[in-house]
Amino acid sequence: MKFVKMEGLGNDFVVLEGPLEPTPEQVVGWCDRRRGIGADGVLVATRIDDGRVRMAYWNADGGRAEMCGNGLRCVARFAYDRGWTDGRSFVVQTDLGDYPVKVRKSGRVRAMLGHAVAPDESTLSVVGTDVHPMSMGNPHAVLFVANTNEAPVKSLGPVIEVAESFPDRTNVEFVEVTDRNRIEVRTWERGVGETLACGTGAGAAAVVAHREGLADGTLTVGLLGGDLDIEIDGDTVWMEGPATTVFEGKLS
Fold first, then answer.
1. What is the CA radius of gyration of the chain?
2. Do residues 173 and 142 lie in contact, with contact meaning Cβ atoms separated by under 8 Å?
3. 3-state secondary structure of 87
4. Is 163 helix (H, G, I), strand (E, B) or coil?
């Protein structure tokens, strides 16, 4: 079985052509950075009717996830490069619904990131820390810090991930506001740990910063793996960033 290793801002994936339903054990093995290919997760891209593409995503721990923003861009580029689509603009179908995407001539991908939904309580106290819960179809907990370089991502991230307030576990974003047009974000991803980038996490962080009056609706999110452009239109969030093929191979 052939695979493609892809990455979006350093968030890396094993991409497979579907239809396919890998087992949790297979996903864990493929994502192992010492004994496998090495990745933050596994994407399965399936060509369906009307020029659309189906996307499914598994985290490195073998658990199925609802959505992955960087993965969405990679699937869009994977499908376009293989001639599956009628043009540069098409729809990627996910567990959460349909996501419009556009592959630009530069290879960058613009895509709808999802609809931001906040619970009635805009702030929660979790292990003594104020966090802002936000759903981008998948759960996020956003907290502001003075300096992301000094943020306790590896110590506090896993504690908030499994806190009682988040029964399905949560991704955790540590956010530093640079100015109204830029924020810096580090993410602890549920089932993965800290990654170089999280697309939905960038969107969640941008929305919270915007709603708190700290940032404009069009801004750049600085991630460890690079910059992601975010545009907030009401409760709909759009992103634009790179999606790159690293290498191709064959699973034994």
1. 17
2. yes
3. coil
4. coil
Task: Name the pairing type of β-strands 193-195 and 182-189.
Answer: antiparallel
Residues making up the chain, counted from first to last: 252
Catalytic-residue membership of 74: no
Q: In Å, how far are 118, 156, 174, 201, 219 from 214, measured between CA atoms?
A: 17, 23, 15, 17, 11
Mind listing the domains of the chain with CATH numbers?
Answer: 2-106+243-250 (3.10.310.10), 124-234 (3.10.310.10)
| Whether 198 is catalytic | yes
Catalytic residue among 14, 116, 192, 198: 198
Q: Which of 129, 188, 121 shows the shortest CA–CA distance to 161?
A: 188
Q: Are 173 and 186 contacting, i.e. CB atoms less than 8 angstroms apart?
A: yes
**Phi, psi of 74, rounded to the nearest 5 degrees:** -65, -40
Q: Is the full-model pTM beyond 0.85?
A: yes
For residue range 45-89, list pLDDT tens digits in order: 999 988 899 999 999 999 999 899 999 999 999 999 999 998 999
Active-site hit among 14, 45, 68, 237: 68
Cα–Cα distance for residue pair 80/90, rounded to 1 Å: 9
Residue 60 has what DSSP assignment? T
